[in-house]
Design brief:
Layout: E1 2-3, E2 6-12, H1 22-29, E3 41-47, E4 57-63, H2 73-85, E5 95-99, E6 102-109, E7 112-117, E8 122-131, E9 134-142, E10 146-151, H3 168-176, E11 187-193, E12 199-206, E13 211-213, H4 217-231, E14 236-240, E15 246-254, E16 257-265
Amino acid sequence: MSGAGNTFIVADSRQLPPDADLGLLAPLICSEEQGHGGADGFMAIAPANNPSSPLDFTMLYFNRDGSTGMMCGNGGRCAVRFAADHGFVQNPDSITFSNAGVNYQARLTERGVLVRFPSPGLVRLHQSFVLFGTSQPYQFVDVGTPHAILFLEDLSGEQPTHLSELDVARWGEAVRHHEAFRPGGANANFVQATGDRSGILLRTFERGVEAETGACGTGAIASAIVAAGRYGLAESVAVTTTSGATLYVGFTVEEDSIQNVFLEGDATVMMTGELQLG
């Protein structure tokens, strides 16, 4: 499946062996050597075990390197679409699922899938660290996954005037592994306002994938929150991703806290197949 260019292998957990080690399975089936050409992550969708549970399903998410325990925004939206298409969901206008112990609300929309997120766990503005021997300003937002946000116009040195020309592999790896975010590291997001300043352009280097991805849902949320204040955007931000797809991030600011966060965008099936385990 693709969520705005973020790609995933999604499976019904009821069809997987109960003793399957999904952390070991994820790198194998997400490998670029597979016939599908590789994926950013792997998800197993499980029904709620308790009939009285408010949950429609549980999302088990793994990065391409097998790491887990974090939220993936575009993965969550793909999980909702998969669950709705495979009989896990009772009401497409009111869907509840969990991932890594956190419950999320979602619904199907004309744009695809909308998922509501808890308020950010941590927001640190106007931070700085030394990168390539120079002090660089950055922002930090944790929305279930930690994100460092750097604005293109702030980068020191002879940087390009357009985000498409930035060497994200070089900058992203340096930020992702920076000592400021040890031991777990952080995703690296690079942001520029669109030409008409109605939204933002975003490129993200994701930990666990260890490369730039076509899109990053939680990165879009984190970047939109800080970019809205930076560029004077409305509290509903259109985020143009590396893939060219647009994600929509909404939130409100209430007494210096971020509330009513949502992520919306497309979630589509690219291909289907059978997974042979043996």
